[in-house]
Amino acid sequence: MKLNLIGLLFGIAFGGVLAASNLHEYDTIHAMLRLDEFDVFWFMASAIAVSAPLLWLLERRRIHTPFGGELALSRSKPEKHHVQGGALFGVGWAIAGTCPAPALVMVSSGALLGLVAIPGIFLGLHLRERQTKTVGHVGDGEHRETVVVPG
Amino acid sequence: MFDLLPDRLAWYVGGPVLGLLIVGLFAIANQPLGASGAYVQTSGLLRRMPDVVTWRVWYFVGMFVGGVLVTQVLREGAEIRSGYDALRNVFPLWAVVPLVFGGATLLGYGAAVAGGCTSGHGMCGTAQRSPASLTVTATFMATAVLTTLALRIVTGGDL
């Protein structure tokens, strides 16, 4: 299916950019969170600075996306679970020095401890699924692919 | 293999390219360029769950392949190593393994509770100007910096 190919290509490009920027290295993330080096903050800020106005424009023009209907951006209100989840995520991020996408690239780059981080991420996501008895509930920021199964 | 890329791409190149990728996936599929959802779908596939979003699994594979392409093909080729140099300078390997595993479990759980991670909330969510994503991002940035500070104090400034 075409969407699978698009997914693969976007994955390659995303992983490639993270790798080229060395975001898969514990030392890069650690130096950022120690506030020794601001490159990663600028990296994130410039990604947002480029995408935010373009998304705003595309949304205003009500563009029709080939695979997802009319572009609909999400603007959910903050709830308690956003603060709780964010707080836990930050602590784990600081200790493990990686997050879901860079952990995959870490293994690509030959760093074997990435093979310890990835199962940990899977386990953490799974523990929440068991707790809430839902599967596929985590979206990417905005719960777009919610699949709830009973039991 | 080819040594075509610098050791580290400057943020003012990588960041804007990532920004364009975010816009691209929204424009094509009306979907955020997030990573934790890809883990959820991949784990669903491995456990033979129904209703798996297969393109997210291909996307998961793609992130790994993109990493191989850059670190092994376009660069000289990274060697097999443990990684986590700064952490390993402070702790022995028997302590590093549970630290990494525990931290990763915590961040996975937190991402599930928050509904996204650094990419889904931190970049795609803030780019959509979502108040929920801004809240998540501000919270995880704060706790991450504070945790790093705490680790630094506990290790007497070594980490």
**Shape summary of chain A:** globular
Please report which band the strand proportion of chain A falls in: under 5%, 5-15%, 15-25%, 25-35%, 35-45% or over 45%. Answer: under 5%
Low-confidence stretches of chain A: 145-151
Largest interface: A-B, 122 and 127 residues
User: Major sheet of chain B, described briefly?
Assistant: none
Order of helices and strands of chain B: HHHHHHH
Average pLDDT number of chain B: 95
Write structural notes for this entry.
The complex is a heterodimer of chains A (151) and B (159). Chain A is mainly alpha-helical. Helices cover 62% and strands 3% of the residues of chain A. Chain A has one domain. In chain A, a hairpin with a 3-residue loop joins strand 1 (64-65) and strand 2 (69-70). Chain A is globular, with a radius of gyration of 17 Å. Chain B has two domains: 1-80, no CATH class; 84-159.
A few lines on this structure:
The complex is a heterodimer of chains A (151) and B (159). By secondary structure, chain A is mainly alpha-helical.
Helices and strands in order:
The complex is a heterodimer of chains A (151) and B (159).
Chain A lengths: L1 H19 L5 H8 L5 H22 L3 E2 L3 E2 L9 H17 L3 H9 L5 H19 L19
Chain B lengths: L10 H19 L6 H11 L7 H21 L10 H4 L4 H22 L3 H10 L3 H24 L5
Task: Offer a few descriptive terms.
heterodimer; A: 151 residues; mainly alpha; two-stranded antiparallel sheet; globular; B: 159 residues; 2 domains; 7 helices; 70% helix
